[in-house]
Each structure stands twice: as structure tokens, then as C-alpha cells.
Amino acid sequence: MTRIFINLALCFVMVGCASLDEAATFRGSYVRGAMGTVARIVVHAPTEAAAAQAATEGFALIDEFERVLTDYRPDSEVAELGRQAGRGPTKVSEVLGSVLELSIREARRSHGAFDPTISPLVKLWREARRSGQLPSQDSRDVARSLVNYQDIQFDPVRRTAELRRTGMALDFGGIGKGFTADRVVALMRSRGFNSAMCEIGGDFALGDAPPGTVGWRIGAGDGGPSLTLSNCGVATSGDVEQHVDIGGVRYSHIVDPKTGLGLTSRARVAVVAEDGTTADALATALSVLGPKDGFAILPAGAAARIAFGLVSPQVSTTPNYQKLSASR
Ligand code: ADP
Ligand code: MG
Prior knowledge:
Layout: H1 2-10, E1 13-14, E2 26-34, E3 37-45, H2 48-69, H3 77-83, E4 90-91, H4 94-109, H5 119-131, H6 137-145, E5 152-155, E6 160-163, H7 176-190, E7 196-200, E8 203-206, E9 216-219, E10 226-229, E11 232-237, E12 243-246, E13 249-252, E14 267-273, H8 276-296, E15 303-308, E16 316-317, H9 320-327
Antiparallel strand pairs: 1-9, 2-3, 3-7, 4-6, 5-6, 7-8, 8-11, 9-10, 11-14, 12-13, 14-15, 15-16
Helix pairs in contact: 2-7, 4-8, 7-8
């Protein structure tokens, strides 16, 4: 039962929409492993060949962004920026600069609950997952002292960045998938395919509604409402896919910058926002903040849903969640 609920609640699934003029366009749906998870591109195009070509370009973009943004590869641009910490400003690529700028915006909005400098604490979490032991208080204190988005110096005009203190590093795990999905949908649009969507591991960017429909139908499958949405982002977060159990306690891969430990609240968060980047970062932030402080930071037009525990489908709902789904 537990498992079923978890699986259902974990990922939004596209349940599809009937198109009234299916003959007019070809609906291509393409799935591939990417960014340590599964990426899906759906694109409506005049022909099958055009849809396939666009999706191929989309997946190439995802691979390119992964090479820039992942902290799992020592040769990524983000890893290099970490090695340059404390050594003065470094020129960064357009992609890294954009993610950095948006990450700082989301860190400010969430009062540091979402923090792209979380890397030293996430590395401790990964170590704990390997060893099965919690990090010592000392190592946690050291790592925590290196986590603070206010110590990022970013110059958008020169497009340079600096992490002010040696030992600091960036982790875009909480925003990179939504950002990439947005850019894939923008790429489809630039090719003339406005009706497209991209999902990377539960983070969605949605373009115009599929032809003949009012929107992409997105269902959480956990008894919550199924949403019909377009031109926005949807994201999920929580401790289901990645966690470590130590001493009977489950620590999520989302770390609270204040405690330095993985979350133990077992919250499942779903967010609808203006784009995938915002939804992705907000879902991580709301996991840390919980409903009271979390709902308070939601920007106008965004909506969120938080479920706790294993069986309770819904504890808190923003007032505009239902309204938003009905009005789209
Ligand atoms: P998922 O990867 O399941 O979609 P998230 O979008 O919440 O979930 O991203 C979780 C990832 O974000 C972690 O694996 C880690 O790399 C990073 N992260 C963990 N805690 C934080 C935090 N407080 N702020 C920003 N990023 C975080
Ligand atoms: Mg996220």
C-alpha cells in the first residue's frame, strides 16, 4: 500500500488529451534516459520526420546542459567553478549564468531554503548514503559554514561568477531539470512547434495546448485533482526516489540548509508555476519550508500541494490550487 501510494504520488503522469484535429498534426512522444533520470519530449509537428528531428535536437540540448550543470562530473563547468572558489571572478557560459541568476532569485524568494550552494552538505549526504552513517557534527558544521547563496558574486553584465570562499561549490540538482525542460520547449517553439512539452524526472515545462485541446492533462494519480495546463511549469519533490535510512530514520536527498541534514518530514510537494525552472526550485524550497512558510512565498499565479506521510493524500492545499486548475 505504502509503495503503491509512493509510486502514484511520485511523478505526475501525462494522461493525454484527445485532439480534435489529430489529422492536422503528428504527435511525437519520445523518451530517453538523461540527467540521471528519464526525459520525455512530446511535440506536435506537421510530419513524423519533423517531430523526430525536433526531439533529437531537444535531447542533444539536454545532454549539452547536463555537461554544464552536473556536479557528478569533474569536467563539468559547474565543478570547475567550484574549484575556482575564492580565486576571483570567472567568466561563465550563457547557460551557467542563467541558471545561476535564477537560482539566486529563488534562494532570495525562499529565504535560503532553496540554496544552490548546498553542495558541501549534499556531498556529506551522498557519503552517508554510501557508508550508512550520519556525518559527524564537526563535518556538518564545516559544510554548513560553506553554504550561503549570499556569498555568490554574480555579474550579469560581464557574465562572471565567483564563489567567495574556498570550499564552496554549486549544486543545481533542485533547479536544473526544470530549467532544461523550459529551454527544450523554447527550442521546439523556435522551430515553429508551439505545442510541445518536456518532462525530466517529474519536472515539466508545458508549451501551448495540444491542437484541439484546452491543455496538457497532468494527473498526480494520488487522489488529487488532475490538472489541464499549458504554458507553465509543474514540478514534484520529495524523499521517495532518493533517501537514506539510518537508525530507523529516513533522510531525504533534499537538505535543510539550517540543520545540514536531509529532510525527515516525508513531505511530497507538487508545484505549478509560470515555468519549469520556477516550479522545480519552488518544489525543493517548499519541501524544506513546509506548508505554512512555503505557501507564503508562492508568487502570484503559482500553486502548490503538500502531502505528508504515506497514506494521507492531502494535508494542505493553497486556496488557489483548485481555481488554477479550473481556470486553465
Ligand atoms: P528531485 O531531484 O527529486 O526532482 P528536487 O528538485 O527537490 O528533487 O532536487 C533535489 C536535489 O537538489 C538534491 O539531490 C540536491 O542535489 C539538491 N538539493 C538538496 N537540498 C537542496 C536545497 N536545500 N536547495 C537547493 N538544492 C538542494
Ligand atoms: Mg526541485
